[in-house]
Amino acid sequence: MKLGVNIDHIAVLREARKIADPNPLDALGIVKKAGADQITIHLREDRRHIQESDAINIIKLSSMPINLECALSTEIIDIVCELQPHRVTLVPEKREEVTTEGGLNILGEQSLLKSTIQRLQDNEIEVSLFIDPTIQNVTVSKNFGVEWIEFHTGKYANIYAMLFGNLDNTHHSIPSLELSRATLSKMLKEELTTLRLLSSDAMKLGLKVAAGHGLNYQNVQNIVKIKSIEELNIGQSIIARSIFSGLEEAIIDMKNLLIR
Description:
This protein is of the alpha/beta class.
């Protein structure tokens, strides 16, 4: 299983003080040395972490593939087409959110998605759609002609955190925290089954399957067992661990968990 390391949170730390350190560019050599397979960054409309200059330098100087996440924004897509990263993952954005709260509304934005995907592919950029795990989303994604889909694993991560008592790691609300362990175990099993079946369906349709959001050193091992998911994009948990162990060791630790 391939590992994409999201380095947005390096820029989050820099932007907290509006100074030059730490520089996300300094992570490129470390990420490669540690054995990761790609760099992931998110160029948001509000520029809360990664800046346009970061994206330019990272894409220009990285010897690894760059997966650039962005919204369906004409301004951002204009920039992306000039930068030409290896892949663009289209994601939803809300100004008020702390982190991406769910997958794309691909049924409600079909016209804009179709034109954006075509434009990116005309510029020889692979396209991935960040979607919630439903069969309808998988089928519609295939009809758009994209190369990749990436399943939003936030629901799985939240159920896992509730079941094992780490409520500080939940990202989105799940109706009632007063659920029994038996109910949570059932929910977790169902979510993993959904991810396994849908990733297999997507693979059979010719789509490449990635997953990400809320994955960490504790909950990732269940996802690793799903053989039709070939790539994980993980950021916050790796950068958080790197504060104590160093970035290279944090990536090596995660990469070791991805060995099947």
